[in-house]
Specification:
This protein has 548 residues and is α/β, with parallel strands linked by helices. It has 20 helices and 23 strands. A six-stranded parallel β-sheet has the order 3-2-1-15-16-17. The two termini are 46 Å apart.
Length: 548
């Protein structure tokens, strides 16, 4: 079972740093196969912090939805179309499967061979009795089915319809009956009746199977070589040999070429719908070029989840990695309002009104008496600095301040020095497109059935704001259309002066409910407002309530 520690969509510093540090703590506590992930790109400031402390980026997981590749069987090799029925049936038995994919030398799917089709060959129905003795095969494959040895040289690899005949009558009766068969396409199964062997060879039978491992007299061999009759020695008795020999036909003639197949990246939900409408027992999984990657059986849907999630810095499904609802969520660490993340059973849920999720992670390190490494301490300090604007945000608590002081000692660096380095890294207004500004740190919410988003960026000055304003408003309009939102807001915060500009696109009645001083149309100036979570979000929800 893989455990993924992951933050919200469009991850910020706190989301990335808390995920990495908490995954590290889990490994220190003995949890196997746990790693941090991200569901979006990291911004320049996060990249700077990761590089500064020599920590690789968490791996990219844009969608956690369980896929076909998570449960498919990959160690089953498809069978070739020229393999005989007997060998394919043995493969099915050894792999505990009721069907196998049939592929060519390039592993391109040719079809499926099912257990039912094989049994129709080996145990035909009564209605097929007139042709049950006819087997389309090569002499080489016929001998291979019962481990036979040719006594007259190499056996033919040319496929033909062969009639299987058993010498089970008096000699005179049998020889008369033999005349009713096409001798050139007859394979005779016989024990040590040497006189019958000779007469059958003289009658032109194509091959003679000497069953029970009996010795064949030199005179019989000489006559067979002279007349072009192949003699095959079988170690089994006549009844067993002929049963085995029925499996000599290659599966090319009986495979089902029209099949339902799947793609490895298809969601299990979609695959389940497709599979439920088919009577196939296995479903080939193909890549985009039609090559076999694996197979899926209906029982594979019964496999338990192969991964589970620990969510950090969020607890609302709208902010979680896509597919989170289809996986077990075993823990949540957050410092935001309670959302709507249902779970099947009780879980560890830590939700405290602190300034940063990294504060909660630092407290867990302390609780378990595991000192964080310098790198992990650096990430935790960066997360707290970013989310509390280095302790100046109104969301900052005494607990945030406590761990900032402790982490300074572990890192060997003052928080003010690290903060200066972080906020000196590229201005989002200058380095991102307007669309990226809106989506880089964007959180979606739902209130009374209406969905909306609130984004935030931090700047060290408003010098570039006015020149980008109209483009940002256009990007917000596009975002509303793309996501079907009631409104979209962007908070642009000056971390030095502790003020913000609020840009909003939405219906006129909602815009009229905003009472902050209006800077320009759709833009308001918010003095001493820097927190999306504690200051802006409750205010916007109040404005939304006035427009019901």
């Amino acid at each position: 079972m893989e455990t993924i520690v992951i933050g919200h969509r469009n991850p910020d510093m706190d989301s990335i740093c808390s995920a990495v540090a908490y995954a590290h703590l889990k490994r220190e506590l003995g949890m196997d196969n746990v790693r941090a992930a991200r569901t979006g790109a990291v911004n320049e400031r996060v990249s700077f912090v990761l590089d500064f402390f020599d920590v690789p980026q968490p791996y990219f997981l844009p969608d956690a939805t369980p896929r076909v590749r998570d449960v498919m069987i990959t160690d089953v090799v498809g069978t070739a179309p020229d393999r005989p029925v007997s060998e394919v049936l043995s493969s099915m038995i050894s792999h505990h499967l009721r069907a196998l994919p049939v592929v060519d030398e390039q592993r391109q799917l040719q079809g499926i061979i099912s257990e039912n089709k094989l049994l129709e060959v080996i145990l035909p129905a009564h209605v097929s009795a007139p042709r049950t003795r006819i087997v389309h095969a090569t002499l080489a494959n016929i001998a291979r089915t019962f481990e036979g040895q040719s006594l007259t040289g190499p056996l033919s690899d040319e496929e033909n319809d062969y009639a299987f005949v058993v010498a089970a009558m008096k000699t005179e009766t049998f020889l008369e009956r033999l005349k009713s068969f096409d001798s050139a396409h007859t394979v005779l199964f016989i024990g040590d009746r040497h006189n019958v062997q000779l007469e059958a060879i003289r009658g032109g039978v194509r091959a003679l199977v000497a069953t029970g491992g009996v010795a064949v007299r030199p005179a019989v061999l000489e006559e067979a070589l002279r007349r072009g009759c192949s003699i095959i020695s079988s170690p089994f008795d006549t009844a067993t040999s002929i049963i085995f020999a029925r499996g000599a036909m290659t599966i090319r003639r009986i495979l089902e070429s029209e099949t339902v197949h799947l793609n490895a990246d298809m969601s299990l939900t979609m695959a389940r719908r497709i599979v439920s409408l088919s009577n196939q027992t296995i479903f080939p999984v193909l890549d985009d070029e039609g090559h076999l990657e694996g197979i899926l059986t209906k029982s594979d849907f019964l496999k338990g989840a192969l991964r589970q999630l620990i969510l950090v810095d969020h607890n609302e499904i709208s902010q979680a990695v896509p597919g989170a609802m289809e996986l077990p969520v075993i823990e949540i660490l957050d410092h935001h309002r309670l959302g709507n993340m249902p779970t099947d059973k009780p879980i560890l849920f830590i939700n405290q009104p602190v300034g940063s999720t990294c504060t909660l992670v630092a407290e867990l390190y302390e609780r378990h008496e595991i000192p964080p490494s310098r790198a992990m301490a650096g990430l935790l300090m960066a997360g707290i600095i970013s989310d509390t604007l280095n302790g100046t945000s109104p969301t900052t608590t005494d607990l945030d301040r406590k761990f900032l002081r402790q982490l300074e000692k572990a890192v060997g660096m003052a928080a003010t020095d690290l903060a200066a380095r972080i906020f000196a890294v590229g201005s989002p207004l200058q380095t991102l497109t307007p669309q990226q500004v809106v989506t880089a740190d964007c959180k979606e919410y739902e209130e009374s059935g209406r969905r909306f988003s609130v984004s935030q960026i931090e700047e060290v000055t408003f010098a570039h704001f006015d020149e980008k304003r109209e483009m940002l408003l256009a990007a917000l309009r596009d975002w509303i259309s793309a996501k079907g939102l009631a409104f979209a807001a962007l908070l642009v915060t000056d971390v030095n002066k502790q003020n913000s500009y609020l840009l909003v696109q939405g219906p006129p009645d909602f815009l009229r409910a905003i009472t902050y001083p209006e800077h320009t149309e759709h833009v308001w100036f918010l003095e001493n407002v820097v927190s999306r979570k504690k200051q802006l979000l409750p205010y916007l929800i109040e404005c939304l309530a006035q427009t019901r």
